[in-house]
Amino acid sequence: MTTTTASDAAPGPVPGPASGDGGVRTAAEPRPSLGARIRARLGGTAVQVFLVLVGLFWLMPTIGLFFSSLRDASDISTTGWWKVFTAPAQLTFGNYEKLLQNDVITNSLLSTLVITVSSTVLLVVIGSLAGYAFAWMEFPGRDWWFLVVVGLLVVPVQVALAPVAKLFGIIGIFETTLGVVLFHVAFGLPFAVFLLRNFFAEIPRELLEAARLDGAGEIRLFVRVVMPLGGPAIASLGIFQFLWVWNDMLVALIFADSDHPPITVALQQQLRQLGNNIDVLAPGAFVSMLIPLVVFFAFQRQFVQGVMAGAVK
After folding, report:
1. Contact assessment for residue 251 and residue 183, using Cβ atoms and an 8 Å cutoff
2. Domain range holding 205?
3. Is residue 165 within 8 Å of 229, Cβ to Cβ?
4. Could you report the per-residue pLDDT of 233-282, keeping only the tens digit for each?
5. Helix crossing, 103-136 with 177-200: angle to 10°?
6. Looking at residue 25, what DSSP letter applies?
């Protein structure tokens, strides 16, 4: 005869006091944590609408600048930009025609483009070479030199303005485009080397060894293997550098040529004559803001991939 003990019995509902479900109750589910409850509430439609309103409020200055750039100087001086919603006839592209005829603004945009593109390209090339060297090449004091590079990340730009200005004056590149480019490249290199070295170090060693076995030298290995794999990180670095140099005013105000200043300095100079050229100042400021946005959204996918690189194994 076989007997069945309590331990052999199949698990089932636990008897309990009489209730609406026939006097049987199931095991109580764990109560959600406070964080889970907050997360569930934040996913509601009301919260999403609130966040959209906050985003629109944050974009309000940009929207106002855009509409101001499409209004005449007399309209800008007398009424606010929101007047266009009740009087859309005020909108005109005449201000942008005047902007293209303003030699100061157009030359400053060209100078800014030259400085920004040159600084970005030089930084990407030098930073990529240095990052690859620190990641995969053996040389004396490699780790110590990398610690020096990391330490340079905390050096503020303001500390070097006076000594670098004196050095540039001695070698004859003060108030030149070359001086501005070299300054931006020098202060962008620590971050570039740190970012790219950590990214390149994640490349599988077997892949590099296989390329070496096929006869690839260091230069060919760097160009054909490392650079394509490092595309997301390089794109992120390029976007960071482009935005920083384009929007910079401190370095440009000190080191740039006063006859051909970048757009930030040119707009600052135009503010002194605000009453006479407000119809040029508004579209100039909007164009100055629009170009970095176009660059960012053009490389948005690569930027996100570069930022998230290494976050998931």
Report:
1. yes
2. 100-308
3. no
4. 888 899 889 999 999 989 998 998 888 889 888 888 877 665 567 778 88
5. 30
6. E
